[in-house]
Amino acid sequence: GSKFIEEKLGPNTYQISPGAFFQVTTAGAEILYNVVADRVKEVSSDPSDILMFDVCCGTGTIGLHCLAEGVVGRVVGIDISEPAIEDALANAKRNGFGDDESEAKTRFVASRAELVMGRELRRINNLKSNVGPPKSIVAVVDPARDGLHPDVIKAIRSTKEIKRLVYVSCNPTGSLVKDTVILCGPETKKYRGLPFKPTRAQPVDMFPLTPHCEMVMTFDR
């Protein structure tokens, strides 16, 4: 039999391996991803100017959705799950966002975000491309219920080029609150870089008739 299942979400079709994460309610996920896309496109009137770091990217759904909606020029997806990244690479190619190195719209990396964000940014800035380096950088994070690892927050805060952070949380009264305190706290020896400010919050009811919801929180600096 097949080694994966397929799901259509918005304009894209995704393959999902047994070990990879995918939202259980595709209709709700499309609404959620449209909210994220709306927050991302506010950064620049020219989508080709925008580089999106898709942290905890899973099978690449958020980044590829934003590309399909035409709100970003490039996506760098990062996740520690190698099966998920393999799916993300296949999904990028399947939906027309893979291949040519010099003009690549996507790059997916199996690693801890804090280890590769700086390297990937330098790589893109040095890439020989007609598009040139990005003028605006947005980070989108979609962590598990425990929230972001402190080292990921450290990496995001210290990457001064990131002016907007879009945080998708499945635990808005728990880990989102904890992470917000660190993201928006004063600069310390551990957390360097200017603090963010929460500027917008949008709940999305992904799980009708349950007490759970997703929260899309926007931070700027």
TrEMBL record:
<feature type="binding site">
    <location>
        <position position="142"/>
    </location>
    <ligand>
        <name>S-adenosyl-L-methionine</name>
    </ligand>
</feature>
<keyword id="KW-0489">Methyltransferase</keyword>
<dbReference type="GO" id="GO:0032259">
    <property type="term" value="P:methylation"/>
</dbReference>
<keyword id="KW-0949">S-adenosyl-L-methionine</keyword>
<dbReference type="Pfam" id="PF05958">
    <property type="entry name" value="tRNA_U5-meth_tr"/>
</dbReference>
<comment type="similarity">
    <text>Belongs to the class I-like SAM-binding methyltransferase superfamily. RNA M5U methyltransferase family.</text>
</comment>
<dbReference type="GO" id="GO:0003723">
    <property type="term" value="F:RNA binding"/>
</dbReference>
<feature type="active site" description="Nucleophile">
    <location>
        <position position="170"/>
    </location>
</feature>
<dbReference type="GO" id="GO:0006396">
    <property type="term" value="P:RNA processing"/>
</dbReference>
<keyword id="KW-0808">Transferase</keyword>
<dbReference type="InterPro" id="IPR010280">
    <property type="entry name" value="U5_MeTrfase_fam"/>
</dbReference>
<protein>
    <submittedName>
        <fullName>S-adenosyl-L-methionine-dependent methyltransferase</fullName>
    </submittedName>
</protein>
<dbReference type="InterPro" id="IPR029063">
    <property type="entry name" value="SAM-dependent_MTases_sf"/>
</dbReference>
<feature type="binding site">
    <location>
        <position position="23"/>
    </location>
    <ligand>
        <name>S-adenosyl-L-methionine</name>
    </ligand>
</feature>
<dbReference type="GO" id="GO:0008173">
    <property type="term" value="F:RNA methyltransferase activity"/>
</dbReference>
<dbReference type="InterPro" id="IPR045850">
    <property type="entry name" value="TRM2_met"/>
</dbReference>
<feature type="binding site">
    <location>
        <position position="79"/>
    </location>
    <ligand>
        <name>S-adenosyl-L-methionine</name>
    </ligand>
</feature>
